[in-house]
Amino acid sequence: MRTRGKRLCAAAASLATATALAVLLSAGPAAAQADGPRIVNVVIEGNQRVDRDTIVFQMKLREGSVFTAEEANEDFKRIYALGQFENVVIRPEPVEGGVRLRVTVTELPLLGRVELVGAKHLKPDKLLQLISVSEGSPLDRHRLLSAVPIIEDEYRRRGYYFVEATLDTDLLDSEAVARFTISEGPKVRVKSVAFRGNDSINANELQKEIGTTKGLWPFTSGDFSLDTLESDVARLRAYYVSQGFLDAEVGRDFTFDSKNENVSIEFIITEGTRYQVASVSMQGVETLSSGDLAERLALRSDVFYTAADLRADARLIRDAYGRIGYVHAQADPKADFAAEPGRVDIVFRVTEGPKITIGQILPTGNAVTQDKVILRNLGFEPGQIADGKAIEAASGRLMQTQLFTSADLTLVPTDDPNIENVAVHVEEGRTAQFIIGAGVSSNSGLIGNIALVQRNFDATRWPRGWDDPGAFRGAGQTLRLVLEPGTERSEYSIGFTEPALFDRPIRMDASGSYFTRDRDTYDEERLGGQVSVGKNLTRDVYGSIGIRMESIDIADVAADAPRDVFKVEGSSYLSSATVQLVRDKTDNYFVPTTGSRVSVALEQAGALGGDYTFTKILIDGRRYWTVTEDALGRRSVFSLRGRAGFAPGSPPIFERFYAGGQGTIRGFQYRGVGPFEGDEPIGGEFLLLIGGEYQFPIYGKSFSGVVFIDTGTVEENIGLGTYRASAGVGLRFTVDMFGAPVPFALDFGFPFAKDGDDETEVFSFSIAWSF
Question: For the domain with range 276-351, which CATH number is right: 3.20.20.220, 3.10.20.310, 3.10.20.340, 2.60.120.10?
Answer without folding.
Answer: 3.10.20.310
